[in-house]
Amino acid sequence: MAAPRAGKTNNEADQPSSPVLRFGPDQPLKLDAGTLLSPFQIAYQTYGTLNDARSNAILVCHALTGDQHVANTNPVTGKPGWWEVLIGPGRIIDTNRFFVICSNVIGGCLGSTGPASTNPVTGKPYGLDLPVITIRDMVRAQQMLIDHFGIEKLFCVLGGSMGGMQVLEWASSYPERVFSALPIATGARHSSQNIAFHEVGRQAVMADPDWHGGKYFEHGKRPEKGLAVARMAAHITYLSEAALHRKFGRNLQDRDHLTFGFDADFQIESYLRHQGMTFVDRFDANSYLYMTRSMDYFDLAADHGGRLADAFAGTKTRFCLVSFTSDWLFPTEESRSIVHALNAAGASVSFVEIETDRGHDAFLLDEPELFAAINGFIGSAARARGLSA
Ligand SMILES: CC(=O)SCCNC(=O)CCNC(=O)[C@H](O)C(C)(C)COP(=O)(O)OP(=O)(O)OC[C@H]1O[C@@H](n2cnc3c(N)ncnc32)[C@H](O)[C@@H]1OP(=O)(O)O
Ligand SMILES: N[C@@H](CCO)C(=O)O
């Protein structure tokens, strides 16, 4: 049976579908906002077995609206895990060989503490009383999860988009704990254009009368229309003009003629409406505000005196960066500037630009060149780490 819709009441009550690690008042999470989050919890999934040396662990970091169900059926949508094509027994990231961990980020809505969680002070969902969560906060919490497993050094940290930002943050904040890092389709900071798109989405949510200043649970409502519009606008940025043209062109949706009205005449309109509607079934609106904000605030160079190379000073981590030619959200130049900074820091770094028209979300698709790059990088890092094949 499918789990209740994300954020319907309270995510802790609604989403018991993963193991959860709870941190009490003795272990607060220090937030960049200047406060402590306590108590808090992290929902996670693991796959495979941690070896005796605890040297085969791979941390997968999810993107904006992803979750911990990276390689198992998603209990909310009933769909395969979002990277099941890549991760599993006998897959490129082989769970017969590696111990894979994926956790829902702090601020999320699938079991980790987020705006739908109960605020211990009020006994009601936090809503906007939850402090703004940063990428560094997410990583700080993941580090506590990794400590729980007794893992000193992760064999690899990888992820795309917002997941890639977490990878960069891990490598910068905890270099001694990251043997190899694979940031995909990401940037060391969110661009002005990207902040602009996020702001459009947030305003769509907040303009929905059912949002109620973020207290919609108390009104028994959810700002579904606003969140759907936010997703529709964002979804366009995950694709490319060429892919839209190839898939939909100016084709009409289930009709032979224009209707001279505002129904979804075009397939692309119908497609976006579908993307918007299915999204609200699986995601919490306030969480969307928090996730987008965390990406907007990310600026690794600014955190290191304005010089990105200083974020990686002295690093021994092996890096591989991947970008896609048609990604206009995180264009190749973003990855290239990270590569330059890593070179300036004397790091071991390789870089792959993949030719595709599938846009930013290509990292979520069955993309043979991406898989070949990951396979090659992980294989060579495993040999360097002394992990047998
Ligand atoms: C990294 C993480 O952490 S995971 C992040 C969370 N997951 C996501 O963001 C995935 C959502 N993103 C997507 O679905 C992106 O479109 C992609 C690019 C990744 C998927 O690409 P594709 O596999 O090529 O799927 P496509 O974009 O064609 O979408 C297929 C869906 O659109 C629907 N669709 C296609 N054409 C139409 C149409 N004309 N009218 C209505 N619906 C349509 C399909 O029925 C299908 O619906 P379903 O997903 O409910 O089964
Ligand atoms: N489409 C993915 C990646 C966006 O960056 C998501 O929603 O998480």
UniProtKB/TrEMBL annotation:
SUPFAM superfamilies tied to this protein: alpha/beta-Hydrolases (SSF53474)
A Pfam family matched in the record: Abhydrolase_1
UniProt-annotated location(s): Cytoplasm
Pathway noted in the entry: Amino-acid biosynthesis; L-methionine biosynthesis via de novo pathway; O-acetyl-L-homoserine from L-homoserine: step 1/1
Record region (Disordered): 1-24
Signal peptide bounds: none
Biased composition (Polar residues): 8-18
Gene Ontology biological-process entries: homoserine metabolic process; methionine biosynthetic process
TM stretches of this protein: none
Listed name of the protein: Homoserine O-acetyltransferase
Organism: Rhizobium loti
Phylogenetic placement of the source organism: Bacteria, Pseudomonadati, Pseudomonadota, Alphaproteobacteria, Hyphomicrobiales
Gene name linked to the record: metXA
